[in-house]
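User: If only I could read backbone structure tokens as easily as an amino acid sequence. Underneath my words sits a plain record pairing an amino acid chain with its backbone structure tokens. This is the protein in question:
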Amino acid sequence: MTLNGPTRVTGISAGLDQVQVRLLATTDLHAHLLPHDYFVDKRAPGTGLAQLAELIEAARADAPNTLLFDNGDTLEGTPLADATVAEILPAGAPNPMITAMNALGYDAATLGNHDFDFGIDFLETSLSAAAFPVVVANARRLDGSDFLPRRQILERAFKDGAGRCRTLRIGVTGAVPPQVSSWSRRFVDDRLVFGDILDAVRTEARALREDGADLVVALSHSGLGRLDAPPGSENVSMQIAALADVDVVVAGHTHGLAALPADKDSAAIIQPGAFGAHVGMVDLTLEPDAERQGRWRVAVRQVSTPAAPRTLPREERARGGIPSLYPDLWRQMVSAHRAARRYVAQPLGASAVPLETLFSTISPCAATQLVADAQRAAAARLLASRPDLAHLPILSAAAPFRAGGRAGPENFTNIPAGEIKLRHAADLYIYPNALCVLRVDGAGIREWLERCASIYRRIDPDAQGPQFLIDHDFAPYNFDRITGLRYVIDPSQPARTDADGMVTDPQAQRIRDLRFADGRPVRPDDQMLVVTNSYRAAGGGNVAAATSAQVISAPHGSVRDAIAQYLSDAGAPYAPDIEPTFTLAPPGGTQIIFETGPAAADHPARLDDLGLRPLGEAPQSNGFARYLLDL
């Protein structure tokens, strides 16, 4: 089997004294092992590490001198990971993701920020089974020792163009966003410290060269970012590519797709998406280094568009595959998969209404209302011993975790009315964030909401023709609606931040008529409590007001557990009173195009209530359903 269509890579022809090397990479697998969506309990074609097995083997067949890397955020993200943590799988069994990576022959990996979400002990236990090195340049223990190796040289015997065996030394280093020290503070605060990505990779890449590396690969669990990003930034892969000692950068973290060729000022960059939907490929030709005896230098770099299993003909996908390539692994994966399905099938309660996020970015919905209600109920128990705070309003910030964005048109929650199972709670709240209560003033609340309002493109009331409303580069899990408040969002005004949270217009004001639920205006010095999660409280999403707020209750229990508890305690189907927290300001009869998931068509009453009219399919819609709305 070979790669075909636009994803086919035949490699670079190597001269007799040259060595052709292919690098393959995955990133942000997020425990997507098999092509199955546990949230809705059905197949999810085109995702999962198992589906990449054929692509990996085909790429190796085309180029025998091949190395395979993973770029982190591997162990968390689906109910399969939750079942692993909950010890539903056989006691002492290796992490299913590590087992699969061992079988597929990974050469090296790094960590992502979410790999710390279940704690250091779980992470170390999982990594102890890895048959490949895992490197992290910018993580240290409190005593200054390395948490994991900062760098590694892989010696590989590769054949040159004449068929002779040549030994190449491939240097590998990796790094994780330093913000993990805040995002996972409850796990790492007293055990690990994290340094700047760029400084760490620069140091380790130089050391790899000094140690004799012929080729240096940087596994950067970081988005592309900007060349002028300040020290300590989360997304700096473009800056890493500009380092003199780096030949290839594998980027990740932001779940984007990118294939950027090398030039005189930059190394090649590959970013292969997320969830096992793509594998990245870089082909290199190395030749003897005329200036260094016995060493090699990179002469040619060719970056290919990340390949996806769904681009292969259906008959090829159905034939063979991982069951025939790795029969023992297949049996283990199926066993873990079935255990995970049983685990998330546990009943929790019921809902009298559908819980969907298909319209959550233009109107409050029952799904986020449930999260907000559950958080508030859990916080009430935590605050029962704090009578000194009883006079403060309690607000609850909840976001639609699955509501489109970069993850695409299938990334929406759509739970029908009826029985609610554990998988539905995981669908509503996909991350293991902990509950946290902050004390915030009115000025901070306004700043918080301005950040959330950046999900909208700017709408020009004087423009001719419909305008797109939602910026899909904005992660929907950063679109908090804060119950206990009422406010208007005016998308005709400029956004205060870009999609990633960088302040672009500090004076911008999209939030109007900000009031408490009882109608009182929110003044800048008003004090209130906000129930949120540990990610947001630690600065996740670049919500500066949350970062600077006073922590009243430190991270305590997971929000998902709070949802499960709330449903279990209800004693009756959940029938929410959906608070009208926000409305969109009408900029004068302007027509906008709202893009959402195709499942929106299953909710005709909701479409009518919101005044949404279908526009039909468009070649450029990337699978999103388009609706026309008059603002």
Summary: The chain has 18 helices and 31 strands. The first strand starts at residue 19 and ends at 26. The chain has two domains: 5-340, 346-630. Residues 1-10, 311-320 have pLDDT under 50 and may be disordered.
